[in-house]
Structure of Nitrite reductase small subunit NirD:
Amino acid sequence: MTTKTMEKSRFLVAPISKFPEDGGVCVKIGSYQIAVFRSATRDEWFACDNFCPHSGDPVLSRGILGDSKGEPKVACPLHKRNFSLKTGECIGGESHYKVEIYPVVIEDGNVYLEVDSAMVHKGENL
């Protein structure tokens, strides 16, 4: 059996200065929406799907950043479900709800996402 490896591309999102401290921004890459979070409190960056898996609404970028037993999380502003920003799993027992997590790279004052190359083909910047 062979495993197909998706080719990754680095997508330039925006300068760090365009992001609120301890908040999120929705980034469109083609038809995809990705929530990118800057946690100034933790001095870390995170990215996940912008769509709440419970309702399908594009709202996670407006969610509330927090912490659950040392694990960074975002709370959906509509349904208050919490998602780990490390694993994408729903915190609190609803394992069938999950969001995709994307690596964030900070380089030369800019924010980049590492995503499947197919997403970048028609990508747009913030």
Notes: Residues 117-120 form the longest helix (4 residues). The longest strand covers residues 8-15.
